[in-house]
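As a point of orientation, let us examine one representative protein, giving the amino acid sequence and backbone structure tokens.
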Amino acid sequence: MTMAGPLANRFGYENFQERQHLVIPFHVPQREPGSASVETQPNRDPDRYGVSLLGPAVLGNLSVSETKGFPILNIKVASQSLGWAGYYGVIQVFATGDGGARLPQDLSNAAWAMDDHPIYDHVNTPFCEFGVHPEFFDAPFRDVQQVDWVARAFICYVPKAVIGKHVKPIFAVEWGFWIDGFTPYVKETRRLDIKVWDEHLDLLRSSFPGWTFDASAVAEPAPTVELHETGQSP
């Protein structure tokens, strides 16, 4: 992948200002093959992406235009399966550096937390999205002078479609941003070894005690990732 933009100053990350696009094929038992499109890019048009709809409760002191440059994420799951066999879910966890500091190089030592849409507050589900060939969108931003933020999104499935609270992981992607001097920068979006799922099992199980989360050893072997580089999107 070609790095676009300067090297970060104090954090030392690469700044990606072009659209990043991963296409990840997968196959789980008793279902047809599928794939997921994972795309991140800087938000250059907050109005188009509905940031103004969130209101002051979410925006705080930020104006809509001040959310430009923060990353947006789109994950689209597709497969040849129909109906119940097309049900998949997205679980996301995130971490921030303490007091604006850089996150630890070994992210297993980071203070991870569950992520969800506010509409799911107090709902007993680990999923940010769940349904037939779901699409997950996220566009975080922060009104701070300096912060280091990272998220891991896991595509998962329930073996019996919508019966039972039993989750198996398929693959994981990591993405994020940092802020330096109130200016946001976009991190590299990359696929992770599915074994990182195991680092979050304690969090998942303590947050949702009525659910069963299989370890990654039970998951299907990871397939090959196709990476597409494209030009800037609006």
Remarks:
- The helical segments are 56-59, 201-207.
